[in-house]
Amino acid sequence: MIPGPIEFAPEVLSKLGEHTPGHVSAGFIEEFGSALGSLRSVFRSGADSQPFVLSGSGTLGWELIAANLLEARADSQEPDVLVANTGYFSDSWKDCFEAFGLRVANLASPELGGTITPEALTDALKANPSVKMVALTQVDTSTAVLNNIGALSKAAKAARPDVLVAVDGVCSFGAEQFLQEEWGVDAAITCSQKAIGVPPGLCLLVLSSAALKVLAQRKSRVPSYYGNLNRWLPIMRAYEERKPAYFATPSVNLIRALKVSLDQLQAQTMEKRWARHQAVSLAFKHALTVLGLKQVPTAPAHAANTLSAIYFPTGDGVDAAKILPAMTAAGVVAAGGLHKDIKATYFRVGHMSYSVMNEESGRDDVLRVVQAIEKGLQAAGYKFQPEAGVNAYKSTLTNPKKQ
């Protein structure tokens, strides 16, 4: 139950283990083309947007955006991109931009666990008129902070209609509400191994028509060979038109598994997935509160629905170091802290995709997490009412209005 790689649906794993067809075989062309079209539906992108599926991870998505949609300017010291920073991964995206010679203006949340407000973003854009792009993270996996991408993107476009808005949705797309076209997002990236529900190895990107225009009109060479989207654009379009094409061999088995997962997402409907993830997250977080555990996000309104970042309890006689090992012994693996300022003081639990959407199977993975946390707390010598968290989770999931 770490926040990625997650648990995967049996149908996805089964498809992944089948024989590997040729990457220009008729069957695979149909599957790849279908998957590309499905990404528009899952991301709620416009008909004139362009999906890309490349072998890589979410980190490759950062590079694709930095290398293709921005151009370094040797004659200027002014910032090229504004990064809205809510944690470890925002810091890393900033480093990625700088690796391509781009200058970054950093807009950090005023407090750890806080979010970025539209007002702060507007002020930062006014203070940095040279910025060509705003880089937002919907959910930072290190802090479990959820940014209001709709409000932020609209604020950016209102302040600067020409600015591109890029969103890292690695720990959100497929579970948190995301409306690319309606919100005015120009570049949306994620990876396969989180809420999209496919084992690691795929980078997923959808560009708006405005982003495609910027790509087509750039004046300098894209500083990447494999990551040059001008090379991949005709390949993706050919697959959607059900035609063979080749630049570099795609991850055939992973893409076939992606098609299965995207079909499942659409069959469930995105509205039901968004609602189910929110309901399970609220029930889990209520259980944590009943147990007296605090979380990293400073307010429930900007706490992610895909994971929870939980401070270890403190106090006389409490040995927090025993909690995660005891949870593992109970059959549940959680993740340690990641943010450099609080790394040893908290742990993280992922709750997304199959572990949330498998209620018809009769299993409840998140309930098992609550039970394991209680065992961990008991092993640590933390005082609490036995099964208080379990009962709070069950009652809240059944009657969410009573929380």
Structure at a glance:
It is built from 15 helices and 12 strands.
Which terms summarize this structure?
3-stranded antiparallel sheet; Aspartate Aminotransferase, domain 1; alpha/beta; Aspartate Aminotransferase, domain 2; 403 residues; 15 helices; 12 strands
Please describe what this structure looks like.
The protein has helices at 10-16, 26-43, 58-69, 88-99, 118-127, 149-159, 180-183, 209-217, 229-240, 252-268, 270-290, 323-329, 354-357, 365-380, 388-398; strands at 50-55, 81-85, 104-108, 133-137, 139-140, 145-146, 164-168, 187-191, 202-207, 307-311, 335-336, 346-350. By secondary structure, it is of the alpha/beta class. The chain has two domains: 10-268, Type I PLP-dependent aspartate aminotransferase-like (Major domain) (Aspartate Aminotransferase, domain 2); 270-398, Aspartate Aminotransferase, domain 1 (Alpha-Beta Complex), CATH 3.90.1150.10. The strands form three sheets. The chain has a seven-stranded mixed β-sheet with strand order 1-9-8-7-4-2-3, sandwiched between helices. Helix 11 (270-290) packs antiparallel against helix 15 (388-398) and helix 14 runs antiparallel to helix 15 (388-398). The longest helix is centred in the C-terminal third of the chain and has 21 residues, at 270-290. It is globular and about 65 Å long. The model has no long low-confidence stretch (mean pLDDT 96).
